[in-house]
Write a structure and sequence with these properties.
The complex is a heterodimer. In chain A, about 0% of the residues lie in helices and about 50% in strands. In chain A, strands 2, 4, 5, 6, 9, 10 and 11 form a 7-stranded mixed beta sheet that branches. In chain A, a hairpin with a 2-residue loop joins strand 5 and strand 6. Chain A is mostly beta strands. Chain B is built from no helices and 12 strands. In chain B, strands 2, 5, 6, 10, 11 and 12 form a 6-stranded mixed beta sheet that branches. In chain B, strands 3-9-8-7 form a 4-stranded antiparallel beta sheet, with no helix packed on it. In chain B, strands 1-4 form a two-stranded antiparallel ribbon. The chains are: A mainly beta, B mainly beta. At the A-B interface, strand 5 and strand 10 of A face strand 5, strand 6, strand 10 and strand 11 of B.
């Protein structure tokens, strides 16, 4: 158990809908990262928050947004969903501002299926 | 710019034989390198990391990797495969100047009895 909790584990929704994925980082970790893992794109970094502020952006679509709350949990909002958004979404956390030198701990992921 | 290439998408070995998963990287600066393992329906777990200390890095479950700057490689090895090693393995390169981590496409390791 990595200590990172993601909910829900599975989500099935229709095209055009909006969903929210939730992540609770490990106790004491200030950084939260979101990743998308799909068969055709592999594992892609979406966005990072550190202590409530956005720190880095990767290949995140404009239809997607995220935030980190004062209690350090984070939410990833996906809107106007398309079939191609079906993927496994991972959250990871680390103690420091960057994952470049410190270990990131991953949650078990939320599997999103858009039908 | 940074990139990482995992040279084999699938590797199959017999139980008890050595494992070699190959990773080459490209980075403008001195990188940090990681190997993660993902078992089916599980999150990613760190196996080992290189952060400019010893070039031979030992990780969990008997895995190790050697950082070779001249070859820009960070191959993952294990002397003797176990059935429980069957999983997908990701090589990751990071540097502070890029400000993010880049994942390889993954290598699926199959272990035959």
């Amino acid at each position: 158990d990595s200590g990172v909790t993601q909910t829900p584990k599975h989500l099935i929704t229709a095209t055009g809908q909006r969903v929210t994925l939730r992540c609770s980082p490990r106790s004491g970790d200030l950084s939260v990262y979101w990743y998308q893992q799909s068969l055709d794109q592999g594992l892609q970094f979406l966005i990072q928050y550190y202590n409530g502020e956005e720190r880095a952006k990767g290949n995140i679509l404009e239809r997607f947004s995220a935030q980190q709350f004062p209690d350090l949990h984070s939410e990833l909002n996906l809107s106007s969903l398309e079939l191609g958004d079906s993927a496994l979404y991972f959250c990871a956390s680390s103690a420091h501002d960057s994952s470049t030198n410190t270990e990131a701990f991953f949650g078990q992921g939320t599997r999103l299926t858009v039908v | 710019a940074q990139s990482v290439t995992q040279l084999d998408s699938h590797v199959s070995v017999s139980e008890g034989t050595p494992v070699l998963l190959r990773c080459n990287y490209s980075s403008s600066y001195s990188p940090s390198l990681f190997w993660y393992v993902q078992h089916p329906n599980k999150g990613l777990q760190l196996l080992l990391k290189y952060t400019s200390a010893a070039t031979l890095v030992k990780g969990i479950n008997g895995f190790e990797a050697e950082f070779k700057k001249s070859e820009t490689s960070f191959h993952l090895t294990k002397p003797s495969a176990h059935m429980s090693d069957a999983a997908e393995y990701f090589c990751v390169v990071s540097d502070r100047n890029a400000g993010k981590s880049t994942f390889g496409d993954g290598t699926t390791l199959t272990v035959k009895p």
